[in-house]
Write a structure and sequence with these properties.
Order of helices and strands: HHHHEEHHHHEEHH
Helix content: 40-55%
Number of domains: 1
Shape: globular
CATH class: Alpha Beta
Radius of gyration: 18 Å
Distance between the termini: 43 Å
CATH architecture: Alpha-Beta Complex
Structural class: mainly alpha
């Protein structure tokens, strides 16, 4: 795991955050927008719009062995093949989960996150509790997310920073062999690409 966060620029980001908050307050005060609308937009980018990019990357890797090989060797360039790139994804590393190894991602000092493939980081990812505990007691934290791993599974925690962002390639669930790439992408969640969840197959109806 890397602990190198020397390139962070918290002062600039704090200034941007303050300006954003001021603009938000002004728009709400003038009745141009409501907090409910803002919350809905943020939630969409956290859970739907942003993670959909990553889900497409995962689904492609599941159906195309050559793409998967390139993805694990050079995440940044291979993700860019699908048109996803940007400042928060300049150096991307993709980590493959297997039946014996489970990867989970954190940023211990702030909230470095691969925006091009996962959108905005969720609030819990930025919380001190997650940032501090997942490194010390990953199995317990994953259990609190509802993910129970066998004791035989090795858990690897990766510390994202301003130079390298990590994304998890989840295991493809059994029973999805006949699904199309688009159908597979619809199964992939943001949490599975951070490593705090697994992808599950749809329940037969």
């Amino acid at each position: 795991m890397s602990g190198d966060h020397h390139a962070h620029i918290p002062d600039d980001r704090s200034e941007v955050a303050l300006r954003t908050k001021a603009l938000e307050s002004l728009l709400i005060e003038k009745g141009i927008i409501t907090t409910d609308v803002l919350d809905a937009v943020v939630q969409a980018y956290e859970q739907d719009i942003g993670p959909l990019n990553g889900a497409k990357v995962v689904a492609r890797a599941w159906v195309d062995p050559d793409y998967k090989k390139r993805l694990l060797e050079n995440g940044t360039a291979t993700i860019a093949e699908l048109g996803f790139s940007g400042r928060e994804g300049i150096d991307m590393v993709v980590l493959e989960n297997t039946p014996t190894v489970h990867n989970v991602v954190v940023c211990t000092l702030c909230s470095c996150y691969p925006w091009p493939v996962l959108g905005l980081p969720p609030q819990w990812y930025k919380s001190f509790a997650y940032r501090s505990r997942v490194v010390r007691e990953p199995r317990t934290v994953l259990r609190e997310f509802g993910l129970e791993l066998p004791e035989s599974s090795e858990i690897r925690v990766w510390d994202s920073n301003s130079d390298v962002r990590y994304m998890v390639l989840p295991e493809r669930p059994e029973g999805t062999e006949q699904m199309s790439e688009a159908e597979l992408a619809s199964l992939v969640t943001r949490d599975a690409m951070i490593g705090v969840a697994k992808v599950t197959a749809p329940v037969p109806v």
